[in-house]
């Protein structure tokens, strides 16, 4: 075999190895999202706790307050999904109870994936209609910074401004509130009542805005 042919063979083998490695990486990523179990539950994510907090700017004292819980929900594709909520240990059991209730009611949850999946960008998470709890930010004004709040279907339940603040756009941007959509919350909704029973405050009653996605303790 002459030298040029040998070089081409080596390059070909390197390409095969590289493609094989990339396929493994793609499969690993795919395995974390949309993997079927028992042919009737779709796994949206299965992070370890260490993976779920990776890259957060939260101090150790805050991270030690957190717990990663597995939840199941009836999603927008009319299938049962399994996801995860990274939240504060103080409300973890209450959220498990609420997710069981939402599943019984067939209240649609689009997805529930820790925000590490969105590189800690809350805006991207909301735009993807992702239900989440912990996202570290200014602890003086945000209960999410300690995992003591949860946002339910942000795109179905956008933050809408009241009174003199109505010139501001909904958040997430482009979201339109429609109470007829399964997964949307409104006063006297069974899910709202369930949160209220467990002593959560609903963002709909905030002074400046209707933050219907938001419940906090």
Task: Report what the structure shows.
The chain is of the alpha+beta class and 217 residues long. The protein has one domain (36-216). The protein is 32% helix and 18% strand. The protein contains six helices and nine strands. A four-stranded mixed beta sheet has the order 1-2-4-3. Strands 5-9-7 form a three-stranded antiparallel beta sheet, covered by helices on one side. Strands 6-8 form a two-stranded antiparallel sheet. The longest helix has 30 residues, at 3-32.
Spell out the key features of this protein:
217 residues, alpha+beta, four-stranded mixed sheet, globular
Number of individual domains = 1
Strand order of the largest sheet: 1-2-4-3
As a whole number of angstroms, the C-alpha radius of gyration is 21 Å
Structural class: alpha+beta
Average residue-wise pLDDT: 86
Largest sheet: 4 strands, mixed
User: In total, how many beta strands?
Assistant: 9
Please tally the helical runs, counting DSSP H or I stretches of 4 or more residues.
6
N- and C-termini, Cα separation: 73 Å
Shape: globular
- Unreliable spans: 3-31
Helix amount: 25-40%
């Amino acid at each position: 075999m002459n030298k040029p042919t040998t070089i081409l063979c080596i390059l070909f083998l390197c390409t095969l190895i590289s493609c094989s490695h990339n396929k493994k990486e793609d499969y690993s990523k795919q395995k974390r999202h949309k993997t079927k179990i028992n042919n009737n539950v779709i796994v949206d994510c299965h992070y370890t706790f260490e993976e779920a907090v990776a890259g957060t700017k939260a101090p150790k004292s805050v991270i030690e307050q957190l717990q990663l819980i597995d939840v199941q929900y009836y999603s927008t594709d009319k299938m049962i999904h399994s996801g995860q909520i990274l939240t504060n240990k103080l409300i973890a059991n209450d959220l498990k109870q609420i997710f069981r209730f939402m599943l019984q009611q067939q209240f649609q949850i689009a997805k529930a994936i820790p925000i590490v999946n969105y590189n800690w960008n809350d805006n991207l998470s909301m735009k993807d209609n992702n239900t989440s709890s912990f996202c570290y930010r200014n602890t003086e004004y945000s209960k999410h910074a300690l995992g003591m709040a949860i946002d339910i279907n942000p795109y179905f339940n956008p933050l809408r401004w009241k009174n003199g603040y109505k010139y501001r756009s909904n958040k997430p941007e482009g979201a339109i509130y429609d109470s007829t959509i399964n997964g949307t919350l409104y006063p006297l909704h069974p899910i709202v009542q369930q949160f209220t029973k467990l002593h959560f405050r609903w963002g709909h009653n905030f002074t400046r805005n209707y933050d219907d996605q938001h419940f906090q303790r």
